[in-house]
Request: fold
Amino acid sequence: MKGEIVKTVRRDMMPLVEKGAMRPHVHATFALSEAAEAHRLVEKGAHFGKVVLTL
Reply:
């Protein structure tokens, strides 16, 4: 099942990402020093979109 989802995303969505027509939603950005806080957010499942760590 998961393999089919990955194939579908690669086929249908990746071309849109590559063209810039679709971008990932960033929920929150944390400094690398705040990685534990970012991890807690992800563990709670309280995010919608990506949680990004910056250097």
Summary: The chain has two helices and two strands.
